[in-house]
């Protein structure tokens, strides 16, 4: 009898563990290259035009806490496989956009199938979550992601320049804070769903999805955020009323760190390296990827920065270029103090411009 009970208990335990794992794998989360849940990931899509060569424009590097350093993805960014495709498939393939059990919100100042406008914040990304958890994917890719009913489509225009994306898995309470941060950005939401069961908590998001501007307590806001596994990020967001370069005028001073900044540098529009305040913002001009692949910032539409001093170990990814016109636009940065992320980005800096 003892053996039978033991056998039954073992079987019951296996069933319970299987159910738990099934439920965990079903949670909305960032997904890695194998489609498994991860706390966060970063991708860096290569530009088509690199120094000395012309590429496909859809190759990318991948990073998360388990791989330890940049990995060349075996997938292409225009494939529904890989980290970005697998993450979005939770909305697309599962047809969660037809369900009332989760929230999703897609935003881009240059949306797919719609005209570009400067009336909104210069910001791009999406949210997808339920009452338990979900993800915030922020990126630099115009015309992306596609409308859910269209399935996964990567825009052909997104092949030319370098692009970055940061995905972080958050619990529900953190996602409510992120929605408040988005109010400062005034994103152009082009596809949203806030079911009635979420309306009490997400009235602000519902208004933003309708294009409403919300009253703000100030012209900028900093918010600590903690991933589902407890890793700290800090969100810096500014409204259009904070008329300054976010890197130099705020983030460098707040973090007390000189920043090396990589943003799209259109000739005649970019702001020069600036050392007028205690902490400086210096423009990166050339990137060197693993394998000695190099490209110039004029072919890079990504927006990121790292601390010049190795001991500070600050890395931020976000929305805004160091460009005069974007001093008048809403936008933000999400900053990490993870040494793995810092090392990965800091080693990419091949050449930057010091102040004159």
UniProtKB/TrEMBL annotation:
Keyword annotations from UniProtKB, A to Z = Hydrolase, Signal
E.C. numbers: 3.1.22.1
Q: Which GO terms describe its molecular function?
A: deoxyribonuclease II activity
**Catalytic activity line of the entry:** Endonucleolytic cleavage to nucleoside 3'-phosphates and 3'-phosphooligonucleotide end-products
Q: Would the keyword Lipid metabolism be found if you checked this record's keyword annotation?
A: no
Source organism of this protein record: Sphaeramia orbicularis
The organism sits in which domain of life? Answer: Eukaryota
Which intervals of the chain form a coiled coil? none
Tell me the first and last residues of the signal peptide.
1-26
What does the similarity note say?
Belongs to the DNase II family.
Q: What is this protein called?
A: deoxyribonuclease II
Q: Does the keyword Signal apply?
A: yes
Question: Which InterPro entries does UniProt cross-reference here?
Answer: DNase_II
Biological process terms from the Gene Ontology for this record are: apoptotic DNA fragmentation
């Amino acid at each position: 009898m003892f053996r039978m009970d033991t056998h039954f208990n073992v079987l019951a335990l296996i069933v319970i563990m299987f159910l738990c794992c099934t439920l965990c794998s079903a949670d909305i989360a960032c997904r890695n290259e194998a489609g498994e849940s991860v706390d966060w990931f970063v991708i860096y899509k290569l530009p088509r035009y690199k120094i000395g060569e012309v590429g496909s424009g859809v190759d990318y590097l991948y990073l998360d806490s388990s791989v330890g350093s940049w990995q060349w993805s075996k997938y292409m960014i225009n494939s529904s496989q890989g980290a970005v495709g697998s993450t979005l498939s939770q909305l697309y393939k599962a047809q969660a956009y037809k369900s009332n059990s989760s929230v999703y919100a897609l935003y881009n100042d240059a949306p797919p199938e719609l005209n570009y406008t400067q009336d909104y914040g210069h910001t791009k990304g999406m949210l997808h979550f339920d009452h338990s958890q979900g993800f915030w994917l922020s990126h630099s890719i115009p015309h992306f992601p596609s409308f859910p009913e269209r399935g996964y489509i990567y825009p052909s225009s997104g092949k030319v320049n370098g692009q970055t994306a940061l995905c972080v898995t958050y619990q529900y309470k953190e996602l409510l804070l992120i929605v408040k941060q988005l109010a400062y950005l005034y994103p152009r939401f082009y596809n949203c769903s806030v079911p009635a069961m979420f309306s009490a908590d997400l009235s602000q998001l519902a208004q933003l999805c309708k294009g409403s501007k919300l009253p703000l307590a100030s012209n900028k806001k900093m918010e600590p955020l903690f991933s589902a596994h407890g890793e700290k990020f800090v969100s810096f967001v500014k409204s259009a009323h904070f008329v300054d370069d976010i890197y130099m005028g705020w983030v460098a001073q707040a973090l007390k760190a000189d920043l090396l900044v990589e943003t799209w540098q259109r000739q005649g529009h970019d702001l020069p390296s600036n050392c007028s305040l205690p902490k400086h913002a210096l423009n990166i001009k050339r990137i060197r990827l693993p394998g000695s692949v190099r490209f110039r910032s004029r072919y890079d539409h990504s927006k990121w920065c790292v601390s010049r001093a190795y001991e500070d170990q600050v890395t931020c990814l976000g929305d805004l270029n160091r460009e005069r016109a974007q001093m008048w636009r809403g936008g933000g940065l999400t900053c990490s103090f993870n040494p793995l992320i810092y090392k990965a980005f800091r080693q990419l800096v091949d050449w930057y411009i010091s102040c004159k």
